[in-house]
Amino acid sequence: MSARAPQSQRYGARVWRTFRHTQRAIVSLYIVGVLAVLALSADFIANDKPHYLSVRGESYFPVLLEYGVGLGVRSWPAELRNVDFYELAREADTAIWPPIPYSSTRVDIRSQPFKAPSSAHWLGTDHLGRDIAAGMLHGTRVSLTIGLVVVLIQATIGIALGALAGFYGGWIDLVISRFIEIMLGIPTFFLLLTVAAVFPPSIYLIMIILGLTGWTGIARYVRSEFLRVRALDFVEAARSLGGSDLRVMGRHVLPNSLAPVLVSMSFGVASAILSESALSFLGIGVPAHIVTWGSILSAARTNTFAWWLAVFPGAAIFLTVTVYNLIGDGLRDALDPKTALALEARGTEAAPVLQTPAVETA
Amino acid sequence: MLSYLVQRIVLLAATFLAITVIGFTITRLAPGDPVELYFSGGLAGGDTGVSTDRLKNVERAKEALRKQLGLDRPLYVQYGIWLGDILTGDLGTSFKDGRPVWDKILERLPLTITLNAMSILLTFAIAIPLGILSAVRTGSLADQVTTVGAFMLYSLPSFWVGTLIIIFLCGGDYFAWFPSAGVRSIDFDPSWPWYQRLGDYLHHLAAPLFVTTYGTFAYLSRVLRASMLEVKSQDYIRTARAKGLPERTVILKHVLRNSIIPIVTNIGLLLPALIGGSVIIETIFSLPGLGYLGYESILQRDYPTVLAIFSAGSALALIGILISDLLLVAVDPRISFASRPA
């Protein structure tokens, strides 16, 4: 039953073509790519272990080795256990260090806390003497992961409930709609604060709460799309061919309703990153040893002379939130037939029509 | 109209009950026994060290306290009691200092309301002219500047802007344009003439007000612009122009009035964000408002206060939704009470 595939491909291709005309969104997409690369390679850019170390006639690859140990396939050789690589590197023949020779959690004893940006610490150090550049890189990893995981949870719940409500209607729709209304009436950010504060700090807990509270937008979208699409002829046809409910929903209705969900998901990533940063900023939720953008920014609250603790992580949050918002915006313009036509005709940017960007704490 | 209103309010009440059940369950199931907290110095501070010979007395006292707070009963009974108290206007007693929660909230509420009311007024005062300007002169330099500016503004995290203001503009090592905390100067004197007192107050509120407002006005001005552009392309606008109405009348009377609907629906949706936003902004600027009280209470696990603020927040959100629905009917005669899904 892939009769609809060619059409949806054409549709997808057209959306992509329009999307490409939105310069802002394309640039944003590249920026997200760069951020993702930074997040993935954070350990290779900033680490308190050298990439390569040749000492006493032996060669080591400590950074890679660390991954092996983490995966459980390798273990540290006895001579490298509990060793300070800075000390070891001094007697080494060659040591190749990452560009930032600190890890995000490493307290640099040689340096004082609250060092302003310098050649030793590009972006300065925090109240414990931890390197901010390394912390920023690690924060990229945390933020992008949170954005992705949260949005996946939200999309799963939102699509499932929205699909059920829209497809079956009746009392199922009534129950789910009531549930959505309840969720809308909850002061989400305050709930988030409460739960994150009373339970032991954990990054997974934050992801779960954000995921469980933020799905209403997607559910409402999917519900209305299903309501619209289920009455169309091709659904009727699939049904009369004997397709089960699940099959009709999954193979025929869902692909035709998915486009707006992507817009919501893009805004959802921005909003999740914003919420996590706000929580960390208030010093709630993320364990103290995990460095995030919000937690660096939080240190600036009480140490108002250390401008670098505020400027860099804040700029990173701003940039990331903005690019995800721009991508969502570009997607929406590309999906909207009215703006899409205008875009293709002119080949330039349409004025963005704003609906539901990530607005903080909403 | 009346029956619609009654129906809506009944439904709202049911939704509110469901939300309080969620809030209640979370605060009661949270790890950390309030009684233990009470005895470890949470309440009234002071007597924290207990010698071993008094331990038995302490156990007995804990038991008594648990009974007094009703914590020995099943959860649903506790909820019933709490709900009964709420409905009779009793929000309970703070775990932290033993004061009625009502008193604590009432002394913090005026500041938060003042701040948010000023913020909403300011939002509309800026967003509407800006949106009109942007929509009337589509594609002009002014339009492009406001478009980019608005996008930047509402992506700017308020906690970042707040922190930057504290660091660079509120004393510290740089400019000292604004006070960094509180609502009164250190040398505040009640005998000051009213304008000096008012000036002092506004000087303290200026920075928090800016941080509360910039995101919403940027957002709303965009919403208005989009809505006005849509209306501008309608036939009846062409008709209005064709019959020779001055442009001013066309824009202000015909376009604006029909574009105001999305703005109106947004008024209600702004309300629920206020509590969350207040937490952040009042914490940054150390303002003794409801949000700061909430933040403190959460950190101190003062559950009665947390639950009260949580409930107040959700009531506000629900009322916001109701208001925006009612306003919608008021501004748009095409929408009738009967046909709207409840």
Question: Can you put this structure into words, describing what you see?
Answer:
The complex is a heterodimer of chains A (362) and B (342). Chain A is 66% helix and 3% strand. Chain A is an all-alpha fold. In chain A, helix 6 runs parallel beside helix 14. Chain A starts with a helix and ends in a 16-residue tail after the last helix. With 342 residues, chain B is mainly alpha-helical. In chain B, helix 5 packs across helix 8, helix 8 crosses helix 10 and helix 9 runs antiparallel to helix 10.
Question: What are the defining features of this structure?
Answer:
heterodimer; A: 362 residues; mainly alpha; 15 helices; 3% strand; B: 342 residues; 13 helices; 73% helix
Strand tally of chain A is 3
The value of Rg of chain A in angstroms is 25 Å
In terms of per-residue confidence, which ranges of chain B show pLDDT below 50 for 5 or more consecutive residues?
A: 42-48
Query: Numbering strands along the chain, what is their spatial order in the largest sheet of chain A?
Result: 2-1-3
Largest sheet composition of chain A: 3 strands, antiparallel
Helical segment count of chain A: 15
Spell out the helices and strands of chain A N to C.
Answer: HHHEEHHEHHHHHHHHHH
The average pLDDT score of chain A comes to 82
Number of helices of chain B: 13
Q: How confident is the prediction overall: mean pLDDT of chain B?
A: 82
Note the overall shape of chain A: elongated
Helix content of chain A: 55-70%
Biggest chain pair interface: A-B, 50 and 66 residues
List low-pLDDT spans of chain A.
1-6, 346-362
Record the SSE blueprint.
The complex is a heterodimer of chains A (362) and B (342).
Chain A: H1 5-21, H2 23-40, H3 42-45, E1 52-55, E2 58-60, H4 62-71, H5 85-90, E3 94-96, H6 132-168, H7 170-185, H8 188-198, H9 203-213, H10 216-229, H11 233-240, H12 245-281, H13 293-302, H14 307-335, H15 337-346
Antiparallel strand pairs in A: 1-2, 1-3
Helix pairs in contact in A: 1-14, 1-15, 2-6, 2-14, 6-7, 6-9, 6-10, 6-12, 6-14, 8-9, 10-12, 11-12, 12-13, 12-14, 13-14
Chain B: H1 2-29, H2 34-42, H3 55-69, H4 75-87, H5 101-136, H6 141-155, H7 158-169, H8 194-232, H9 235-242, H10 247-259, H11 261-284, H12 290-299, H13 303-331
Helix pairs in contact in B: 1-13, 5-6, 5-8, 6-8, 7-8, 8-10, 8-11, 9-10, 11-12, 11-13, 12-13
